[in-house]
Structure formats: C-alpha cells, structure tokens
Amino acid sequence: MRNISSNRFDDGRDGTVRISDVARHAGVSPSTVSYVLSGKRSISETTRRRVLDSIDALGYRPHAGARSLASRRSNVLALVVPLREDVHVPVAMRFAVSVVTAARDHDHDVLLLTQGEGPAGLRRVAGSALVDGVVVMDVETDDARVPVLRSLGLPSVLIGVPADTGGLTCVDLDFAAAGSACVDHLADLGHRDIAFVGQPASVYGRRTGFAERTLAGFESAARRRGLRATFHPCDPAGAGGLASALVRDRPGLTGLIVHNEASLAPLLDAFAGHGRVPPEISVVALGPPPPGVPELTRVELPAEELGARAVSLLMDRIEGPERPGVTLLEPRIVPGGSTAPPAG
Amino acid sequence: MRNISSNRFDDGRDGTVRISDVARHAGVSPSTVSYVLSGKRSISETTRRRVLDSIDALGYRPHAGARSLASRRSNVLALVVPLREDVHVPVAMRFAVSVVTAARDHDHDVLLLTQGEGPAGLRRVAGSALVDGVVVMDVETDDARVPVLRSLGLPSVLIGVPADTGGLTCVDLDFAAAGSACVDHLADLGHRDIAFVGQPASVYGRRTGFAERTLAGFESAARRRGLRATFHPCDPAGAGGLASALVRDRPGLTGLIVHNEASLAPLLDAFAGHGRVPPEISVVALGPPPPGVPELTRVELPAEELGARAVSLLMDRIEGPERPGVTLLEPRIVPGGSTAPPAG
DNA sequence: CCCGGTCGTCGAAGCGCTTCGACGACCGCT
DNA sequence: AGCGGTCGTCGAAGCGCTTCGACGACCGGG
C-alpha cells in the first residue's frame, strides 16, 4: 500500500476533494485519474485499483461544472412535463419517474422543465449547455415546441407523435394497434356487435392524435373482422344517457371498448343500473386502471417502458450520429375479469 | 451605435457565443460583461445598455458549467419527490410544479431526484456541486434522509416535519390548526355533536405525523368548544359499515370531518343510502377535492404556496447564514355547499 | 490647486476537469 | 541486436466564466 501524501494535505481547506488530491494520494497524475474514471485510455489494472481505492478513501466526486466545461457534456437530461389538466397525472408521474430512473442508469441526472416555460425553457437549457438532451412528454399533433427543437440542434426525443416527424425521434404506444387489439380480443371471444366509447367529441381531430389513431385502429379491425361496430364520443356527464341509449337501441350489443378514463366509472354504473354488469357485457378499457373499478380487461399504457425507451434513444442520439425515426410500442392486453364470450 | 468587430468573428465556429464575443461586440472587456450580468459592481448606464444590446444581438447564454465552476454556484436546486403509493399523486405534482416555477423566479433550475436513490442521491448531487440546495418533499417523522442532510452541509428545506427539527428548515401546513379550524367551523354553525373520520388505523402513530397532528387539533378544539366529538379511523372498505354504525348509534350527530381522501366518496354514498346527504348532515373534508364529489366545504392543502415558500426559504439559506426553523402555514377553510347549521 | 475618495473599467489569475501530444518501457519480430 | 509498435502514463493547454486587485478619471472639500 503506497500512501505518499500525508492526510493533512488530502482534504482541501473547504472539505471538497479535487482530482489532484486523488492523484497525489494514489501517486499518479491527475490525467491518469481522469482516464480511470472515463475509461477513455487503457490503464493498468494495478494503477486502476490504486486510483479507485484512493477515490473512495477520500470520497472524491468530480465537480459537475468543471467536468461539463472541459468535456462539453453536462450529463444532465431535461424532461418537459405537461401541465395541462387533461393529462392523467399519475400516468405522467410514472413517466417522469421512469425517465429519471433510466437516466440514472446512463449516468445522467434529470432537469425538470414545465410546459409553462415553453420554447423559452428549451432555448435556455440548450444555450447554456445545461443539458445534453431533452425528453418532451405529451407532444401534440401541432406542437409549438417541435419547430424549436428542430432549430435548436439539441438532441431530443418526443413521447407522442406530431404531425410532421421529419428529423425527429419519437416514441409512443402504437394506439392504432391498441384499438385493433381490443377489437380482436372481443372478436376472438365471439362477439359480433360492439361499441367504442371514446373521448369527448371535442378531442377528435383536435390535438393529441392518439385518440384518432386509436379510433382508426378500432374501425379498421372491426371492418376486417366483419363486426357490427359503432363509435360514440362521451364525457362523464353524458355517460348515463349513452348507456341508456345503447341498451335501448342495441339489444344485440355484447362488447364495449372504452377509451375514456373519466367516463368509465359512471358508464359502468349506468350499465349496471340496466342490469348489465361485466362480464355479462364484455368491457375492455384503454388506459390506466381507474381507482375503485376492479380488474377490468384492458390495454395498459406502458409508461415505464416508454420512459426507458425514450432515454435510451436519447442517449444514442447524444453519443452517435442522429438517426431519427418513430418507435411505436406494441400494446399488450391485460386480462381482467371483464371480458368473456357473449351469452347465448 | 458602435459595432467594432465584424460579424464574421462574432459567431464562434460551433455556433455558441462566448462572453468574449459579447465583450468584443460591445467594445468592453469580458469582466465588464460579467459585471453587467451579475450586478456585482456598478456599471455606467451607457455601458450596461450597450452590453445588454450585444447580448441579445448575439443571443448569448452563459455556459452553465463554466459559470458554476467559477462562481461555485450552479443555480440549480434539487427536488426530491416521493414515490410511495400512499401520497396523493396530483398533489405531489402540484408541489413539484410550484417548486419549479418558484425556482425559475429565483433564476434557478430544478433537478429531479426520486426517493429511489435515497441518501445516495443527495450525497451525489451535493458532492459534485450539481446543486446549490435541495427541497425534500414528504418528510416522515423518522426520515432516513434527515441525518444525511444534516451531515451534508447542503442547504435544504423540508416539506413536512420530522421528529427532530434541530438545525433544519421545514415548511408544512399547520395540520393541528386545520383540525381545529374544521371543529370551529362546525361549532360556529351551531353543531354540538360531531365525528372525525380519519385515516386507516395503521397510519396513526406510524410515520407522517400530519395525521396525528390533525387529530390532536380536532380533539383540543372539540374540548375547548365543549362538543360531543368522537374519532373513527377508517379505510375505504370499512366506510359503509362506519356510516351505518354512526347513523344507528349517534342520532344526534350533525357534523362530519373527514380526513381521508380515499374513503370520502364511499362514506358519502353510504350516508346518502341512509337518507342523509349534505348539507342536511354537514361534512368538512380535509384534503384535495376528490374527483366526482362536488363542492365540499374543505380545508385545502396549499401546495402552490408551500412550494413557493420552500423555495424562498431555501434561497435565503443559500445566500445568507443558516437560520433554521419550522414554518407552519395557516389553513384556510374553503366554503362549499356541504355545511350548514344543524336542522332543528 | 491639490488630495483623498468613489466610480467604472480592465487584465489576469484561477475554478477543477478533460484531452491531446509526447514519451519511456516493454513486447515480439526479423 | 535492432527496430517498429503497443501500452501506460504524464504534462500542459485549455474549456468559459467570475472575481480580485489595480488603475485612470472624475468629483468635491479644504
């Protein structure tokens, strides 16, 4: 064990340990310590060990600012979270947490930006080299941030798919496939007459795209399978009325696909009021498990996987050359107790 | 307008503008630009203007790493968000957003840390000088992070109050006062016989402290006002039974204080089943407005105010000498339609 | 009119790290 | 034995900013 320098000198006067302290303690030069840490040049195993031992003997942590100045890498990612009321907050949180976790796996930290700052926030963190890249959640079809991102030259990954994806890297759930999967699930069980209860009417054609894509998936699959299939926009207040109308007008209806988190509970209550409860009428939910409603068959939104994927794509963009493209995650049907073959 | 240097030189080859570019463009030295930006020395109004004009003519943004290296300030705050399932996610999100907003008002950005990393995360960001201070949300009575914070010498503010607050800066809602305020509200309306429906029994005495503090406030106020008052822990599954029992055993009961977000809806449903709906029986809720339940009289959790306060206290700690202490925010009763003088 | 003080500005010295080029030492060839 | 080629290490030169001390210029008071 070589321990050249005396302890008196090892701790700098204000308590922080610098790379030169480690170097002295290990009997090497600062650059060697740096190379041990970065692995950018080969270092003999003996030296490596000695340096690493010194590092944790002294409790050394590289100064983030100095590192980012010298290496032109901050090892920080920005995450833009949505503020809008209509995003499901717990899901957004799951995203955020998974992004942080994934970022840590790649030795990065995460800076939180809110929608509130908009493009200005992106410009700021990009311009000041505060972050190496950015993950933008909840991207709309015509998102004001998209042109900014394109112009900024900051590596970025979008969660969600805007209208023009040229030059962009995007990740999202394959909502069209999700819509189809629900239809196929019901058709496979033998259902011939189903209804799709969607978002409030105003949502379609407006912004997010995911609603239309789901609906399109539903419609094409229903056509393919030759089902009687109808579409009904819905809001929580109208759920009761819709249920009554369906019960009255569609006696042959045996399957329901519900893509509307907020209306799910009132809708089920209303159907129950008409004596129709799952699985006597089959119900497939699209979205997060609503609180209080038990074990529905549903398509999960794989927030954790999306977050991790977004980060991993972002890291690729940061390291390597840009290779844009849209990644759509395969939806998975989670069986619950709410679907069964139709009666009779 | 003096524009000494030619544009060819103003834009560095990789597109980033440095302080020296601004200086040249404005015909001053880099240090002068720095002083204009920091305000740490007086600068003549003419020079100031000229520098500021150059800054936005060139689109200059100081390099965050360089700045933090030289000034020993990163202008970044860490925010530790809870992961536990039992915190109300939308409320946590409101906190987080308000912290970010407040931080931006103080020219700081926010780094997101998750509970998952625990003390190690705090050590990391502190040791590497990544952040100037940290806001810790959802602090428990015996929180493992508290000793770490104390030892780290990193300025910090806790949202929540641990058992030992020595040397710490904490902010929280005054839950005892909230409990009292509910009692006073009902007593002022003329109620003489009330019940407090609390968290599941296991919560009391365990970790968060806020439950006990609320209960203590309830009890002391009830005693002070001379009310008949009882306490009932409750979980969602037991809400129906509790309602029946109360209706049966407490015919004189006219007021309910509910400190249990999850049980609120089933409890109200159960009371409604016995023909007792607000405001015929008065109900005060403690906590965030539950979805679907309309306009209850309640005590709000002032997340925005707490977040802003936490940041402002943290900034004080970062700038000035440490001045620890516990700040409790006054609760506010938000009138809804669910309380009225007792019948008869 | 001279002198001490303030004001506004500048130059230079770091902050702590990474990275480039250089350079011995040692290897296996001819 | 001599030679090119790795391999492992070092020294020095920045990265872009802040900040300290210095220093003219200008002010008002004796």
From TrEMBL, chains A, B:
Q: Does the keyword Cell wall biogenesis/degradation apply?
A: no
Give the HTH lacI-type domain ranges. 17-71
Task: List, in alphabetical order, the Gene Ontology terms for molecular function in this entry.
Answer: DNA-binding transcription factor activity; transcription cis-regulatory region binding
Q: Which SMART domains match?
A: HTH_LACI
Short name of one Pfam family: Peripla_BP_3
Its domain of life reads Bacteria
- Enumerate the SUPFAM superfamilies for this protein: lambda repressor-like DNA-binding domains, Periplasmic binding protein-like I
Record's keyword terms, sorted:
DNA-binding, Transcription, Transcription regulation
Keyword Transmembrane among record annotations: no
Q: Where is the signal peptide?
A: none
PANTHER family recorded = LACI-RELATED TRANSCRIPTIONAL REPRESSOR, LACTOSE OPERON REPRESSOR
Protein's recorded name: DNA-binding transcriptional regulator, LacI/PurR family
The organism's taxonomic lineage, starting at the top: Bacteria, Bacillati, Actinomycetota, Actinomycetes, Streptosporangiales
